[in-house]
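INFO worker-7 received task bundle
INFO bundle size: 2
INFO processing item 0
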Amino acid sequence: MYAYSENTEFQFKNLCGVLKIHLQQDDTYISRIDLTAGNGYLSSYFVLDGTNEEPALAATSSSSNSVTLNCSTPQSIGGSGHDFYIYLPPSPEGGFNLTLKIYNSDGTHCTKTCSNVVVERNMLYNVTVEGLTFPTLTVPTGAISGLFSVSDTKQVFFSQGNLQWSAMGGGSTATNHNVNGGTAAGTWRFAEHQYDYVGSGNENISDSYTGWIDLFGWGTSGWNSGANAYQPYSTSTEVFDYVPGGNITYNSIYNTLTGDYANADWGVYNAISNGGNTPNVWRTLTGAEYDDDGEWDYLMKFRSASTINGTPARYAEIRVYDGTRYIPGLLLFPDVFSWPSAAGTAPTAFNQPVGSSWDDAPYYTLTQFAALEAAGCVFLPTAGYRNGTSYINNDNNQEGHYWSASPGSTAGANDMKFNPTDHRVCISSTRSFGYSVRLVQDYNQE
């Protein structure tokens, strides 16, 4: 809205027009609509142009060619359908060429295009979109049901819990099948619950320990990558022992857990016993490499998010109360999400640290947390870290560290770190440290 006056009275003029999108499909609920223009700008920063009588908007270097409409609750488009209204700046001559990505309530989407969509100031433009077809969502074994965007074109499922390994599979013997068709001692599995972590039990790490560990040096899938330390039970504190390829050169220290060295990724090389029990199904998210943002970056910083209490929410710090203890961690909200009433009151701080200590984080009972998990949320507990055979997790400032598949500095690899006062996505950390691993599986929408 623009107002001007040459006397004591103001004249108000709309600067934008309205696009009305009509959708109709029985038994379908819409959670979000993403619009992208192939020939113009739709949102963000504009400057005022034109005259008082005919004001106009002019794009800037900060303008965006996309805009997202989030529904606070999924909207039914059955029966006679439903209208969705989006305010847009005036289109270029000939109209916008729009791509609409329309999200179902389960996170699946279909894509439609509309050409020559003319939007004028102070005018309404109608678009009817027909023939919506959404794929059936099949959640993989061992996965949480929510879909999470890790790039403009890729979504993933997260595993049901942090990765764990036991030399004896919790018993007397264990055999793991790997991607090469061979077998190796030990068993890989996902934690039974998202909030589970081993903690100080990681100090028992060895090639014969009958219990479970869940903190691993970087690239320790058990595949002989040429690194000196490549087994899940490796405890060397020499950072250069964890370089895939082994030959320490300027180039080799930047080898990733993808491409030629993908087998160094825990989920690529190994069969996860409660995650489908097939190798090369799961993988680790990438981190920032050189000047490129990684998948962890996109997930935490850039993806479009559903709104909670009016705020676009990608994550929040919370605690899970299991009846005995409060377990701090990071709650990731799926791309399409509505806060379930059974979970109680939603957090108020999103996409940022919660405060000065974990006492500032809201807590949720197991029953409330079950409602969040059923809605597709992922929880990353503050499992601490391991240095050699020493476990570290300060009770007053518990931290979570989760590996990426990407190298960092000369001696490091990128991880995602969080505590109540600080979040760092893809910070370079010492490769020999034992960090948590949370695997993902790509969602391939047909």
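INFO item 0 finished
INFO processing item 1
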Amino acid sequence: MGIDSIINFEVESNLDFATMSTSSIITTLIIALIFIIANWKIFTKAGKPGWASIVPIYNIIVFFQIVKRPIWWIILMFIPFVNIVISIIVMLDLLKVFGKSGALWVIGIIFFNPIATLMLAFGDAEYNESAL
């Protein structure tokens, strides 16, 4: 095993990593774009500006307004373990304001959130402000 084979191995390994990284980045960007569109749609269904879904922190504030929770709950989102409980409560409230109930929706929004979010955004769910 000479120096040429070592150099070739390193070059091939780096190329494989670059290809894998590029495809991972592209896949991640496509998935992120799909969920930006889904959240935009959910915000507009709720009568809020869609652009608010892409502004960090402000999107959480608007989301809390959609589900009728106090704005100060954003502080709770920064406390470990408490944030998990608050997230579940807010997700269940989201189901309520969009008129969705039942065990499958609850399981979906908690364990299969991306799929449930897409179903809320592009399905027949309608925002009902007085549901909570």
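INFO item 1 finished
INFO post-check item 1: The chain has one domain: 3-131.
INFO post-check item 1: The first helix runs from residue 3 to 45.
INFO worker-7 idle
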